[in-house]
């Protein structure tokens, strides 16, 4: 039996597009998808013909967050986000649908993130008994801390305009490809050395956060995911019911 490849790739004039293509679980970050994306990114970083990488998706969801049925080891997700941040090529997120939980970590790790105005976003971790621990590594140095507090503590859904305002997105527009066209043209005109060294300058604070906090936050993620509250929250989510703690709401 042939197993579907969760990440596909194509190339156009120096830009490699990696497409999350796991529609059965709404591109949730399963162990398999995380491993496949990490491998694809590593190959892009080693290929001198790749000027930049676009990370996008099939279907109506960029990523539904961690796959609750086949979650990746926390250290694998940490390594994937670090890979994006440290890749010697710019990585651009292209979003046309929903982004939840760990999917926002992918956006935060990318150098540029653009979305259609129809996209929406939510940090849903608190609603299943965990916290955006590992995904906070690329987000805290880049996003508005007050906005992060609001959205991470409530798990509310917000739109692309709010995501731009808070620093989770770079650009938004009715047609995301129209928005991205001049960005990709600019990257094609830049020298590989210039891009790599400029990215190193721009990601210094994010890389410092990984060096300082990655080990502790990876351990926190593992502890939370194995906790009784997380088991109740994830079971409730999979069973399409409210977790027990909402009885006081």
From TrEMBL:
Pfam families: ECH_1. Coiled coil: none annotated. Gene3D superfamilies: 3.30.300.220, 3.90.226.20, Lyase 2-enoyl-coa Hydratase, Chain A, domain 2 (1.10.12.10). It comes from the Bacteria. NCBIfam families: PRK07827.1 (NF005879). Belongs to the enoyl-CoA hydratase/isomerase family. This is Enoyl-CoA hydratase family protein.
């Amino acid at each position: 039996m042939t197993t579907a490849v969760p990440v596909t790739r194509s190339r156009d004039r120096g830009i490699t597009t990696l497409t999350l293509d796991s529609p059965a679980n709404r591109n949730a970050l399963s162990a398999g998808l995380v491993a496949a994306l990490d491998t694809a990114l590593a190959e892009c970083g080693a290929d001198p013909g790749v000027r930049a990488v676009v990370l996008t998706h099939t279907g109506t969801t960029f990523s539904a967050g961690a796959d609750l049925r086949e979650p990746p080891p926390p250290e694998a997700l940490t390594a994937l986000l670090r890979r994006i941040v440290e890749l010697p090529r710019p990585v651009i997120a292209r979003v046309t649908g929903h982004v939840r939980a760990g999917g926002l970590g992918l956006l935060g790790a990318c150098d540029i993130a653009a979305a259609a105005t129809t996209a929406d976003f939510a940090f849903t971790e608190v609603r299943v008994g965990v916290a955006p621990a590992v995904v906070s590594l690329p987000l805290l140095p880049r996003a508005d801390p007050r906005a992060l507090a609001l959205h991470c503590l409530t798990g509310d859904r917000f739109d692309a305009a709010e995501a731009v305002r808070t620093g989770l997105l770079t650009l938004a527009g009715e047609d995301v490809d129209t928005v991205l066209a001049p960005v990709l043209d600019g990257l094609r005109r830049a020298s590989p050395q210039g891009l790599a060294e400029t990215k190193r300058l721009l990601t210094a604070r994010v890389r410092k956060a990984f060096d300082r906090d990655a080990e502790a936050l990876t351990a926190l993620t593992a502890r939370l995911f194995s906790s009784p509250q997380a088991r109740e929250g994830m079971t409730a989510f999979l069973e399409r019911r409210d977790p027990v703690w909402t009885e006081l709401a």
